């Protein structure tokens, strides 16, 4: 796991590198929140983890338009799952520190993101981040804290 700027600010949030399998991470924010990371290649078994999911962070690579399209298909599958209808969703566009990243305007156009948000049952938040540089991660932590507070 890569350590980020948030780690250096006395929080316990680590942002993993590219996800291949599954991983569990606990963060203290201020209460313990357990995050289960499932890599994109694990898509066929994602549904076995829906039952206890209250919040969903879905990360996409903003520097790879081809992968964005494939990730969008996976996102649509998650958003249409009945077990996730009440989950709060944070869509993260990562790698905004790279010179080849797509702007939010380009991403919204490519993925028809406003239509996805408008048609989804879930409350969706969107953020741009750089996991490597720590950009935007404080906002992710605040989102997690807010979701955890509302769930009790």
Automatic annotation (TrEMBL):
Alphabetized PROSITE patterns for the sequence: ARF (PS51417)
Keywords: GTP-binding, Nucleotide-binding
GO molecular function: GTP binding; GTPase activity
Keyword Methyltransferase listed: no
InterPro entries assigned to the protein according to its UniProt record, in alphabetical order: P-loop_NTPase (IPR027417), Small_GTPase_ARF/SAR (IPR006689)
Residues the record lists as binding GTP: 40, 94-97
Keyword Nucleotide-binding recorded: yes
UniProt superkingdom: Eukaryota
UniProt-recorded name of the protein: ADP-ribosylation factor-like protein 16 isoform X4
Organism for this UniProt entry: Heterocephalus glaber (Naked mole rat)
Phylogenetic placement of the source organism: Eukaryota, Metazoa, Chordata, Craniata, Vertebrata
UniProt gene name: Arl16
């Amino acid at each position: 796991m890569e350590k980020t700027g948030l780690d250096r600010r006395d929080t316990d949030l680590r942002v993993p590198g590219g996800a291949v399998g599954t991983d569990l991470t606990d963060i203290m924010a201020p209460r313990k929140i357990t995050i289960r990371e499932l890599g994109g290649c694990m898509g066929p078994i994602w549904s076995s983890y829906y039952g206890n999911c209250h919040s969903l962070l879905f990360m996409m690579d903003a520097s790879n338009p081809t992968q964005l399209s494939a990730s969008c298909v996976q996102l649509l599958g998650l958003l249409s799952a009945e077990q996730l209808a009440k989950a709060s969703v944070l869509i993260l566009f990562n790698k905004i520190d790279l010179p080849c990243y797509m702007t939010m305007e380009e991403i919204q156009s490519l993925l028809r993101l406003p239509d996805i948000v408008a048609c989804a049952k879930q409350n969706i938040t969107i953020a741009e981040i750089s996991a490597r540089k720590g950009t935007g991660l404080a906002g992710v932590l605040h989102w997690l804290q807010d979701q955890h507070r509302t769930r009790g």
